[in-house]
Design goal:
alpha/beta; Rossmann fold; single chain; six-stranded mixed sheet; four-stranded parallel sheet
Length: 345
């Protein structure tokens, strides 16, 4: 890889902490499950946008603008000045383009709106109209491109005739920097949890991380391995219909898979992020796949415990609930952690 792989959570926190919408999200403990303690990091209302992806998209937009200012002017721009009228006028010349199954596009659109830039989001025809409406409300131009996320990504990659900036949450050879900024934003989740576990001296023994292209799982694994006092077993969870990281791990290289459309729409990605795979193949302990039915059952389980999420948001929990079926050994008195990555609407 022709890029140094490094994520700086302190940089991400310093920038995000000046945002009025930023606040730590809670860790909820659910009643013990078969002698296993169950913790859920609740990202269902992150920064008022309903998904962990708010951290990545907003941070990446802001960081990119700061970097561009320095390139153009030879001086560092204090982050607090991004909202100055003069800087907002300058930011308006930038257009961020991405493909999304919903949440990444919303985060990019919100970042662009906050700093008076522009955004254009390519979504597949299968993405619900409600997501398209939310994007439009944030000022994004929404383009229906293809039947799958992968087809939307191709359209976004080709949408640069006027110098637009592709802000993807996936990476491939030659395209690393902006996806790494997105992942750097996600590391804040692991740091928030580290602070809680350090204060309580109550560390998880197992962490279950759902994955689409793998950005969240990889950023969590990176930060956990780097900074957590006690090390858990890290299990990556994908849909049975889209096991791109599982197959890549088996093959020892990034691998594209095929399969039906999954009800875990935000995880239904057939090709992994190169950066994510490079990290996860070194840092994760296990890769497992859950069925749509088990993910929906996990979402129902969380709803019964007053936490509303989707099948995608409950995929990590689905692996915990299905541990025997998946041949995952979880001893009695273990502490299992999963992330509810998005709200139900």
């Amino acid at each position: 890889m022709d890029y140094q792989l490094s994520l700086n959570v302190r940089c991400a926190l310093d920038l995000l902490e000046i945002c009025p919408a930023y606040t730590q999200t809670p860790i909820v403990e659910i009643s013990p499950l078969n002698n296993i303690r169950l913790l859920i990091k609740d990202e269902t209302n992150r920064m008022g946008l309903g998904s962990f992806k708010a951290l990545g998209g907003i941070y990446a937009v802001a960081k990119f603008l700061l970097e561009q200012w320095q390139k153009e002017n030879g001086s560092e721009l204090p982050v607090q000045r991004l909202t100055d009228p003069e800087i907002r006028s300058w930011s308006n010349k930038f257009t961020f383009v991405c493909a999304s199954a919903g949440n990444h596009g919303i985060a990019v659109a919100k970042g662009a709106e906050l700093f008076n830039a522009n955004s254009r989001v390519h979504i597949a025809h299968s993405v619900p109209a409600s997501f398209a409406q939310r994007l439009t409300t944030l000022g994004a131009v929404v383009i229906r491109s293809g039947e799958t996320y992968e087809e939307s990504m191709v359209a976004a990659m080709n949408d640069n005739l006027n110098g637009e900036t592709l802000l993807a949450d996936s990476s491939w050879p030659g395209y690393y920097h902006l996806p790494m900024l997105v992942m750097e934003g996600y590391t804040v989740i692991a740091e928030e949890m580290r602070q809680v576990f350090l204060h309580e001296d109550n560390w998880p023994t197992h962490v279950f991380l759902q994955a689409g292209v793998g950005g969240l799982a990889a950023s969590m694994a990176f930060e956990i391995r780097k900074n957590w006092k006690q090390q858990p077993r890290i299990i990556v969870v994908e849909p049975l219909a889209a096991p791109c990281l599982f197959e890549s791990y088996k093959q020892g290289r990034t691998t594209t898979v095929s399969g039906p459309i999954s009800s875990m729409g935000r995880l239904d990605c057939k090709e992994p992020s190169l950066i994510a795979f490079k990290l996860l193949k070194e840092l994760a302990d296990d890769f497992v796949c859950v069925s749509d039915e088990d993910a929906l059952a996990a979402a129902d389980f969380l709803a019964q415990n007053n936490l509303a999420t989707t099948a995608s948001g409950a995929a990590g929990l689905a692996a915990i609930l299905s541990n025997a079926k998946l041949d995952i050994t979880i001893p009695d008195n273990s502490i299992c952690l999963a992330i509810a990555t998005e709200g139900s609407s």
